[in-house]
Amino acid sequence: MIQPAQMRALVAGAFGQLATEVPESIDVPVIEGALPDTLRGVLLRNGPGRSSRGGVEYGHPFDGDGFLQRLEFRDGRARYSARFVRTREFEAEEAADRILYRGFGTNRPGGFLPNALRMRFKNAANTSVVQHAGHTLALWEGGLPHRFDPDSLETLDRFSYDGALEGTGFLQRIIGPELPFSAHPSICPETGELWNFGTAYGAPHRLLIHTVSPAGDLSTRALPMRDLPFVHDMVLTRNFVVFVLPATVFDVPATLLGLRSPVDSISMRDAPGKALLVPRDGGPPISLAVPPGFVFHWSGAWEDGDTVVLEGIEYPGFPRLESLDVVFDQPDASELLARPIRLTIDLSKRTVEHTVLADIWMELPSQVGAGAHRVMLGVGAPQSCRHPFLSAVVRIAGEGPPLMHDLAPDLPGEPVVAGDHLLVPLYRHGAAAQVVVMTVDDLAVVARIQLPHSVPLPLHGTWLAADEAA
Ligand SMILES: [Fe+2]
Q: What is d(CA 51, CA 54) in angstroms, rounded to the nearest whole number?
């Protein structure tokens, strides 16, 4: 477990540095253990790669420009490259060397006037990566995906599925010319469809549910919404797309008038949330109240007869992270600490059961298997830890106690599942980053890869097994 005294320097480094590109793929050494023969494919990750522009800090840690990392495993060797996503906003700010756009948690310098009625935000393209229908996309939840070459990491274009993600109508073109396409899509293993969503401001507000066929054709179903809840993730089951809508309130005028950034315009009422189960076949949605709480990430979900089970990581309220100093100034800010939970939705009785899976802190979860045999994986810490930076990799299997492999004083990022192994990025203070290869079964470290540079911790990534990556 990382001690508080180590934290300030660690966090400042992990989120405050400027990543350097490695545009040409290079061999990277395995400095411990050996790469398994079965590990063949490409790991693609995305995350904020720089946190300031022209000497001015962005207003939120998640506003950093998208930085892609690629790690290819073949014949017991690993090769590495890394590049920024060249969005049009990145190119413009690079040329001007100053902040030109508002962001998720950033207003332009200069106070109210430079921000009032400016609804063109920087597409940070920094949250995740998905490959589907022959396209490899860097994702950001507030705007269009960016297509890139999965081999060279070269940015190809802003990708709208042949215009399907471009807004229509006068009002839409003024206030939101691009339809949001979240950073947490799901690909159905049975149909090959990609499902995704976005929340769009308007009259009325809308929850947009996108379906992309295996051939790459996008269609959208729009559900009118009275409120504009903040939703970051969804789950896909055999019959439903499931959202859990928190009791968040978005102060639209404050953002429109430039008084506050979008994230600073979000607050949360102490009220139940709503589980919204939208039938994949187009039927009417089913809505049920769920206990108060806020979930960024679901690890997975499954159906069992008339029951739909969701598992994820729940905060007691909306975690406000205006500045990383919050975690030092408010060591008991419990809304920054989240636990693994399960929601068991009984569709015949119309009930929702809420269960805490383990008394630990967790984030960045994923799931292997489903039902009674599912394994939940993520980063975590024991509850004695009083800050949201989690130094262990965690495994929860069945109903048993969690297994934790603490990597302190290094800081692990999202473990990405690659067959029987996990690929875990490590931020190391004052040293170049590493990637550890662990077994899914017992979290043993089987190999440690040395990267050539220090980089901020990535957010989300994806594994392309050799047959998919070819
Ligand atoms: Fe996320």
A: 10
